[in-house]
Design goal:
Structural class: alpha/beta
Strand content: 15-25%
Low-confidence stretches: 139-144
Number of domains: 1
CATH architecture: 3-Layer(aba) Sandwich
CATH class: Alpha Beta
Number of helices: 5
Shape: globular
Radius of gyration: 15 Å
Largest sheet: 4 strands, parallel
CATH superfamily: Lumazine/riboflavin synthase
Mean pLDDT: 92
Strand order of the largest sheet: 2-1-3-4
Length: 144
């Protein structure tokens, strides 16, 4: 793989914990890759399988969901439901010949700014090793 590949990664982050951790990382001036685009959601329970698969279909090389710590979801079990959805997405990716490592779920508290930055770096490195998404390589673009 060439050294110039910069993966496109979408991070769906819970407003109460993971997004707050991202905000804290910024306040602490911790650096994390600019290729990680953060999308704030009210709860990770609102992230559907289709959101994750559509992100990959639309050219993301990787996606991850970052929510509250297990047992501490502000909406009771949103993060637990989403963990199951992410596992389903991983199986779906594998069934179509893509690496399941392109999708992941993380749990954070709002005080874990350094961990948020570390996750962004880890995912970037993971996806960089996998290379561009096969969907993106073919320059496949869905009709809207």
């Amino acid at each position: 793989m060439t050294d110039t590949f910069e993966p496109k990664i979408l991070a769906f982050c819970c407003k109460y914990c993971a997004y707050a951790a991202a905000d804290l990382a910024g306040s602490m001036r911790l650096s994390y890759p600019a290729n990680v685009k953060v999308i704030q959601v009210p709860c990770t329970g609102r992230v559907d399988i289709l959101h994750l698969l559509r992100a990959i279909e639309d050219g993301a090389d990787g996606v991850y969901v970052a929510g509250c710590l297990e047992g501490e979801c502000h909406f009771l079990s949103g993060n637990l439901s989403t963990r199951k959805r992410v596992e389903y997405v991983k199986k779906t990716l594998a069934s179509i010949g893509m690496e399941p490592e392109r999708a992941e779920m993380f749990n954070l508290s709002s005080a874990m700014g350094p961990r948020f930055a570390e996750i962004a770096r880890e995912m970037t490195e993971r996806i960089r090793k996998l290379g561009p998404s096969p969907v993106r390589c073919g320059e496949v673009k869905s009709e809207k």
